[in-house]
């Protein structure tokens, strides 16, 4: 079995999604991140200087377990260090002493609150990954120290045969969802994206779906008007599937991804039939995929799909 398959197996074994009282889903504490410990940091693999994470065995992931030998390298991608608008200042640089972000709160328009509760700040003044060690310090490719918020639309319909009859497997209806192929690593994923400063999650969900699955960035004003009409219909009512930490390969000890994933199910399939799907922005492909236990998707997206299948009482 390839190391990646092994990782995914163990991720699925230890990662449970539980309903909690608020009607939301959260990963249980026993869930340990796997992709966030990938041996070589994304987008450095084929460079002169691949960034290798310090190896963290499963039992040493939690901060509360002593690991005296732990000595991870520090890495912040040059594109982040240049400090574009979406990135924070380098809090490790003493010149920025007066610019310390307001951790665990709404810092101007930037949401530095974690969906998972309060996170700690270490002795160097950096947020500590609430899911434990990753083998790398700094921000890597992530702009924000601490939580970096994303949002994911899960647009589903029932799979139908040529006669329009819903397809069944093992006595349950088969559902399908819109997936995009990511430009950065070719993996299939939900058409989600980063929440812009000051943006509400439902806006991000609609915007990202438009940009990645309908290529709105290249659409004419007339086409945009039509797309808006159709998205208003589909996105009027959604169900939250997940809100919290994501086991993302870009995570570090001091910066990590969080998301809110929402399901928009088109029972009759006539709303989604109006869309002309076309990959755009950070996506290079778009297609309907069956909800199925053998799916392999980016980050923890497969867990969201499993939960969606449960909620729709669809085959998995
Ligand atoms: C993606 C989201 C994903 C998040 C966390 C973002 O870059 O667009 O789909 O949930 O990262 O992995």
TrEMBL record:
Protein's recorded name: Nudix hydrolase domain-containing protein
Pfam families: NUDIX, NUDT9_N
Molecular function, one GO term: ADP-ribose diphosphatase activity
Top-level taxon of the source organism: Eukaryota
Domain Nudix hydrolase, chain residue ranges per copy: 158-311
Annotated SUPFAM superfamilies: Nudix
């Amino acid at each position: 079995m390839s190391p990646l398959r092994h990782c995914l197996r163990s991720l699925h074994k230890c990662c449970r999604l539980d309903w909690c009282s608020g009607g939301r889903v959260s990963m249980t504490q026993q869930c340990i991140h796997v992709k966030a410990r990938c041996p070589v940091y994304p987008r450095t693999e084929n460079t002169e200087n691949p960034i290798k994470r310090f190896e963290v065995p499963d039992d040493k992931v939690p901060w509360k377990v002593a690991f005296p030998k732990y000595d991870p390298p520090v890495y912040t991608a040059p594109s982040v260090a240049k400090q574009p608008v979406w990135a924070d200042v380098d809090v490790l640089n003493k010149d920025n002493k007066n610019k310390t972000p307001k951790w665990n709160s709404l810092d101007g328009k930037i949401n530095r609150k974690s969906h998972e509760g309060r996170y700690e700040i270490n002795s160097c003044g950096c947020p500590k990954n609430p899911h434990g060690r990753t083998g790398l310090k700094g921000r890597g490719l992530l702009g924000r120290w601490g939580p970096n918020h994303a949002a994911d639309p899960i647009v589903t319909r029932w799979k139908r045969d040529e006669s329009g009859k819903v397809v069944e497997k093992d006595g349950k209806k088969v559902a399908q969802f819109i997936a995009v192929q990511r430009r950065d690593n070719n993996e299939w994923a939900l058409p989600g994206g980063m929440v812009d400063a000051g943006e509400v999650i439902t806006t991000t969900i609609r915007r990202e779906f438009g940009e990645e699955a309908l290529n709105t960035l290249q659409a004419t004003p007339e086409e945009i008007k039509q797309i808006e009409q159709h998205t208003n219909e589909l996105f009027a009512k959604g169900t939250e599937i997940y809100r919290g930490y994501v086991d993302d390969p870009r995570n570090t000890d001091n910066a990590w991804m969080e998301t809110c994933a929402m399901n928009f199910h088109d029972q009759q399939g006539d709303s989604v039939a109006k869309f002309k799907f076309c990959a755009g922005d950070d996506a290079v492909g778009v297609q309907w995929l069956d909800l199925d236990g053998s799916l392999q998707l980016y980050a923890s997206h497969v867990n969201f799909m499993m939960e969606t299948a449960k909620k729709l009482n669809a085959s998995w």
